[in-house]
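An instance noted here:
***
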Amino acid sequence: MEKNVETKGIVQFAMEWGVYMGLYFVVKFIFEVWSMDSFFCNAVSLCMLLCIPVFVYFVMRKYDVLNGLKCYFSQLWMMGILLFFFTSLISSLAQYIYYVYINPEYIKLQFQSAVELMEAWNVMANDPSLLDAMKEGLDKGNVPSPMSVVVERMWVNLFFGSLLSAAIAWLVKLRAKSNFTKQ
């Protein structure tokens, strides 16, 4: 008796795995938030960040195998971009809830920490006008809104996810090609 396995489309597969990766990004965000107070949380967040390419490789490889190793590079790349898109939707919702309802001062505290760090490291020693403008903006309460920070992080996830997906799609197809030539 033969198993009749239905192959999933790129969007459906990316949506399903985007949920898992989105939850992974939410946990990573929680550790990232706590990393201000704990070195352990900072180390966990960094390790989770470094494991993202492994996760993406696993998902792309699984999609390629489910489709009989017949996926093109462009299909895998598009699946990776969609994976990061759906991941960003879930993680952005969690970030927005945190920024608005749980810790409304988080963004302002991050900007204050950045200004203090730039002062301590003498980053703007040659031209302190930018640092002065940042201090003045903070004093006046000019910090980005939670929505603008969330949208910016979504774009960053999509941009770097697209670059990472291209590299990993190439690796998946390279491995599939080398396995095919060995047989």
Q: What stands out?
A: The CA atoms of residues 30 and 45 lie 8 Å apart. The mean pLDDT is 90. The first helix runs from residue 10 to 34. DSSP finds six helices and no strands in the chain.
